[in-house]
């Protein structure tokens, strides 16, 4: 039976360390600040924002919440971002996605100053990640790397297979695994014979948004399996991996919920602290 990678426990531990570093930074005169912008009434987004603000409070990071009406104009949103860019008490800016349909997400995200882009979605940060330069990187992929490391697995030389190639999870995590010297294969919806790839993975990261799509027979015995999926079905949350069959084969596996999710917020705190520290 696989060992469970407890993302909640790891996250709690890391948050205590972040709290200590926030306290130290405050003693040197810098209060790290995160601005969270939520446009509209999406219930899931509201929960995410609430959790992010609570996590800030726990670690001592100052949060500034901006709740904009559903019909906010692009000009108003852009103006707020420009204002936050210029505000020295704000070190990180997060625009909660998805934005209401009439708004241009890419435009809003590209307006955020790259130094305050704690979600790591700006083209400058995405480009720096590709070049292997220091940058603010996307939070979910950062959390995935921490989860893999927590198992004691040496990533170097391992075959890592990433299923999913989105800009926020699949592509950045593939680049990070490559940076850690894994041999990386990226699969997507046009991949033929997917199971041939997943079955050869020492490290398998699945981020596709399909409930329990990867089953135990698609996994190599002893593999580290990171399930990024968050699929709501009949009031319950399911991963992209079928946990019941996968846990019989894998060496380590993340549960859903309680795996990748908590780590994403923790890496947001880490990025905010990093952005604030680089100001001083
Ligand atoms: P996207 O919808 O942006 O991307 C999905 C990717 O999966 C695409 O690259 C797509 O391929 C690929 N894909 C879809 N179907 C298949 C298939 N049958 N076989 C192989 N590949 C397939 O999703 P995200 O990356 O944003 O999110 C993925 C999942 O992770 C979702 O469930 C999301 O809710 C969750 N998530 C969880 C987070 C957390 O903190 N826990 C954070 C972010 C996301 P193609 O490119 O060819 O279309």
Please sum up the structure shown.
The protein has helices at 7-27, 43-59, 74-86, 105-111, 123-131, 139-150, 170-179, 194-198, 243-246, 260-277; strands spanning 3-4, 33-39, 62-68, 92-95, 159-163, 183-187, 203-206, 224-227, 231-233, 236-238, 252-253.
Task: Give the arrangement of secondary structure elements.
Blueprint: E1 3-4, H1 7-27, E2 33-39, H2 43-59, E3 62-68, H3 74-86, E4 92-95, H4 105-111, H5 123-131, H6 139-150, E5 159-163, H7 170-179, E6 183-187, H8 194-198, E7 203-206, E8 224-227, E9 231-233, E10 236-238, H9 243-246, E11 252-253, H10 260-277
Parallel strand pairs: 1-11, 2-3, 2-4, 5-6, 5-7, 7-8, 8-11
Antiparallel strand pairs: 9-10
Helix pairs in contact: 1-10, 2-10, 6-7, 6-10
The chain binds NADPH dihydro-nicotinamide-adenine-dinucleotide phosphate.
Radius of gyration: 19 Å
Order of helices and strands: EHEHEHEHHHEHEHEEEEHEH
> What is the arithmetic mean of pLDDT?
97
> Helical amount among residues, as a percent range?
40-55%
Instruction: Determine the number of helices (DSSP H or I, runs of at least 4 residues).
Output: 10
Order of strands across the biggest sheet? 1-11-8-7-5-6
Number of beta strands? 11
Q: What spatial form do the alpha-carbon principal axes imply?
A: globular
Helix- and strand-based class? alpha/beta
Question: How would a textbook summarize the main sheet?
Answer: 6 strands, parallel
**How far apart lie the N and C ends?**
48 Å
- Sheet-strand content, in percent, reads 15-25%
Identify the bound ligands: NADPH dihydro-nicotinamide-adenine-dinucleotide phosphate
Low-confidence stretches: none
């Amino acid at each position: 039976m696989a060992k469970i990678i407890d993302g909640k426990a790891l996250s709690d531990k890391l948050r205590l360390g972040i709290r200590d570093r926030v306290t130290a930074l405050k003693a040197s005169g810098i209060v790290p600040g995160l601005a969270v912008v939520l446009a509209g009434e999406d219930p899931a987004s509201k929960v995410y924002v609430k959790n992010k603000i609570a996590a800030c409070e726990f670690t001592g990071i100052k949060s500034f919440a901006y709740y904009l009406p559903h019909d906010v104009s692009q000009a108003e949103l852009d103006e707020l971002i420009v204002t936050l860019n210029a505000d020295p008490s704000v070190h990180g800016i997060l625009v909660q996605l998805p934005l209401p349909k009439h708004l241009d997400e890419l435009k809003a995200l590209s307006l955020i100053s790259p130094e305050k882009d704690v979600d790591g979605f700006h083209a400058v940060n995405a480009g720096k990640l590709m070049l292997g330069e220091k940058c603010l990187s996307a939070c979910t992929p950062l959390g995935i790397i921490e989860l893999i490391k927590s198992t004691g697995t040496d990533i170097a030389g391992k075959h890592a297979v990433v299923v999913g190639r989105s800009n926020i999870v699949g592509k950045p995590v593939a680049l990070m695994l490559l940076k850690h010297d894994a041999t990386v294969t990226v699969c997507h919806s046009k991949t033929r014979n997917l199971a041939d790839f997943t079955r050869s993975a020492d490290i398998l990261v699945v981020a596709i948004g399909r409930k329990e799509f990867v089953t135990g027979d698609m996994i190599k015995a002893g593999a580290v399996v990171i399930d990024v999926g968050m699929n709501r079905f009949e009031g319950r949350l399911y991963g992209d991996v079928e946990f019941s069959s996968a846990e019989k084969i894998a060496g380590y596996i993340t549960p859903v919920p309680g795996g990748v999710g908590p780590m994403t917020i923790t890496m947001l705190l880490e990025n905010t602290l990093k952005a604030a520290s680089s100001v001083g």
